[in-house]
Amino acid sequence: xxxxxxxxxxxxxxxxxxQGRVYIGYAGSSAVPNLQFSPNDATPVVPVYLQVINATDxxxxxxxxxxxxxxxxxxxxVDGYSNATFVPETVxxxxxxxxxxxxxxxxGRTLDVRCYGVSTSGQFTRxxxxxxxxxxxxxxxxxxxxxxxxxxxxxxxxxxxxxxIGFSEATLSAVxxxxxxxxxxxxxxxxxxxxxxxxxxxxxxxxxxxxxxxxPVNVQCSGQSQTGTQYQTATSxxxxxxxxxxxxxxxxxxxxxxxxxxxFNLLLLLESVPDTGLPPLGCQAVLFNTTQQVNQALNxxxxxxxxxxxxxxxxxxxxxxxxxxxxxxxxxxxxxxGATITKTNLVNVTRRAGVTAAVTEYVVVTCCxxxxxxxxxxxxxxxxxxxxxxxxxxxxxxxxxxxxxxxxYQNPAYVDVAxxxxxxxxxxxxxxxxxxxxxxxxxKKSFSSCIPGLxxxxxxxxxxxxxxxxxxxKDDWFPMMCVYREYNALLGYFYANSLSIRASQKFDExxxxxxxxxxxxxxLKTSPxxxxxxxxxxxxxxxxxxxxxxxxxxxxxxxxxxxxxxxMASPVRYLEDDKSDCLLxxxxxxxxxxxxxxxxxxxxSSSTRSPSCPKLFVVRGSNGVEAATVAVxxxxxxxxxxxxxxxxxxxxxxxxxxxxxxTFNYTLPNLSDQDSxxxxxxxxxxVIATSTSDETPLPPRCSFDDGYTRPPTPSYNSxxxxxxxxxxxxxxxxxxxxxxxxxxxxxxxxxxxPANSVVTQKYSTEFxxxxxxxxxxxxxxxxxxxxxxxxxxxxxxxxxxxxxxGSAMTLSDGAFYVNQNTSRQHALWSTxxxxxxxxxxxxSILFGENSITSCDIYLTAAELFGDCExxxxxxxxxxxxxxxxxxxxxxxxxxxxxxxHWTTVLRGNLSYVCExxxxxxxxxxxxxxxxxxxxxVVTGINLEVMYAETGKSNNQPIYEVIGSFVSYTNITLxxxxxxxxxxxxxxxxxxxxxxxxxxxxxxVSAQTPPRIDRWLEFYDESICSKDTCWDELLYPLSSAxxxxxxxxxxxxxxxxxxxxxGYLMLVRPWWSINL
Length: 1075
Hints:
single chain; Immunoglobulin-like; eight-stranded mixed beta sheet; flat; mainly beta
């Protein structure tokens, strides 16, 4: 009785104490709290409440014991995900609501948070009180960025100038923007005004003035919200932008020239034209007597003295710099020489009078701005050697020619008018011109090389539109639209002679009449948004202005075309899965912001906010202006150091040939646990194991990837000769529903890749249906998942989709079930770059695609001289494990509980191989195996799948699997000795033996054809008697042949017979000569 009372009291104690639980949220409220925080939050906390439940009577009220310590934990706090340090909170018995604070918040991607309580009384334990998980996110603080591409150019003027500021989040209240700048000696000083934004603004304009001009200055801006904590000065600072003074520069080219003509031209350029426009310019040519005076005139401090004193404005316009126009000025001062600026940026310098005797004159041409505050000057020196003009009396000439008649050139199709086109100098040897007759043999030996290319001298660079061009940024239509050029000396491949042109007007008309073509796109083409919804095969589009979305461009990826070249801008097509790769040269030039090695070439996460401008290109979820949506995009960046499979023709990073024996990463079970073929008989196939993925694990996440920061651009490291931040692979996975793209998950693999290498860049796109809940019309959710699942087609197979296989098993209740675990499916070898079977993986079999793959094992001669039995068993075990299924699904989606949805896989008989050691009596086989030959070794497994078209659905064929057979390939393994010094044959090396797997799809008739009666063979000409078609021996003479006329066919057959008789008469195989 005493023990019973103690037991009742003991049970009553724990019943009254109850079990404590912690929940995230607020007591008495069903609302799920929003656990999204920002580093700007003053006191970030997670709301929790406690509850004690009586296990035997849930309605009973149980008292909360005091001093419960509550804390929280994150699911996987790793790089790239939100992270925080939680501070444990002690909760008293009087208040079940509490909060758990945290500090040191690190922004990152969303993950799960759970909270739990621990008490000394045992009422709360971690295992029993832990709360259900909720999503937890720490977003990055909004920032303020200068909207510029590279930097800001400051005009060297005192007027007010402006630049734009972008906010990563639309302002919830007015935000004050302040900008700081670096200071130092001779550094540019700016007076940047304080700016304030309004509400719901994403960009504002900030004004500034130049105080002192100097070296470039770095500017950084931040914002402070007038109300609230959205923008904080400490956390909103954007990137550093460099402000550089725009220093216009006036230059005359060439810097020095020798001339023998009283008239010559110089090129005038104005670099870095100011925003105020091009100032008026003037030029003057001054004659000096000595070189000392010339040097003084060329001194920049003295150039202004030689500027033109008077200018005359003409009606012509000049364009010294692209994109600007001005009124040219013509200088008329100077006693001997005059300078005029023409409309083609030339300074025409002319002597106003001829010379009476041979003379060398020193002319300094000086050009200056004639008004304004720029004060630009430049001067060049021209040494002119002149001789007096000689007057000739042409009337006394013995031979008179009409000077207005055009010179007639000989037809180059018949006469070699240019036997040595690179011979440009009369009576002198032109360097590297090997056909120049003025060059002696001694001179030719000193040449570095002969001028390459066709006749005509140095070859010009290959233009981008040429088919032989190797430039990287090729459009997808390049192979079709490129121009192929051919130069040869065949008759008719020469240009016709043009008529002579003696007037400038005729020359201008000739130029205007010529047609010029260009395939270069000067800017990214945009098109108005189509009102047509996405449909299969249409281009997926992106837009930059996510608010108005009035214009869009196709989303592109590089893609290999039929010619083997790479189209760098191939559109991504809606609902079309695709995989491709391109071989690209990675060097110091291509390691830049331009091209597909840059991560910014591809889509970016929708959450990217650093920097805040320019705006991202976002994927359009649907077409149509009125109902346009934006697909949420999440890009994951992973950085790898393993470049196997990405680099080509490298010797330092790719694995070398093994030097030791290498087979499989597997050990045969004990003899008692294997059958005669080496298969494991202890595995319980009635246990459904956890599925494993065929995909290669992704490398670690990049350190910069927190979901909010823009990826870095490629940069060349001159110390290591590596290209940092190089994109190696891009994977797009689109989730779609109807005619909309719901979201896009992208994976970008990057790395630090050696420069001067060939990179295999890989790309893939996949479209997955976005599940929004099963309806009554969905009848093939056989496993009752209630979630999205992949089909291989419906109702039949779709070509290119995985072949559904598995192993039949019996459940505990005796029901039929097909185990579709990855380890029980048919697969092919998937090897890495070294091709070893030791680390080979599995590759899914795709319906309708015939494939053969192989891997290599390396064996020594000693292993072949030993017992071959273990080698046979090992290979059979691994090949059967590769194709372990005994069932193949008939349709694109099959009920695993219905045996009628599956066909049985037939297998070849291996008993003659597995049991041969017991029954082996062939002395020849024994002798061969003892001499280093392993006979009847299974080295390949082959799957043949028979399918038929059993109907149509929506005008599409229904493909159904009706049978399959697995066969084996067995050969004799022995060492192949190429030379007497072969290390493998001497027992010190290894030799490779391939182990292959293959699949072959055979389309057969949906119904078994009826048998043909034998008597029809005598009446039906299309049926050959006993499958022997004698008519085909002379098929061209048969009635079935209709390719040529009977007369022609008979003639050809007679000629063939004649050749055969002649050959037999020459060879005479019926003669035998015994010596």
